[in-house]
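**Backbone shape codes:**
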Amino acid sequence: NTPSGKDSQFDDSYIRKNAIKHKVPYITTMAAAIASVKGIAAYKENGEKEIRLKSLQEYHKDID
């Protein structure tokens, strides 16, 4: 969804709300999309056992 015109803000809200409702990942930037693709590729390549997934909260806890 590339915003353009008055109705675009409503489109964005509709897409976001439905993605959340149906538990579909919702990526809003190219940087996040690229990072997601790289993460999925690494997961597929190395398998579940070799990759340690962390939430943002876990990363921030390690930084402090």
Remarks:
- The CA atoms of residues 18 and 24 lie 8 Å apart.
- Residues 8-63 form one domain.
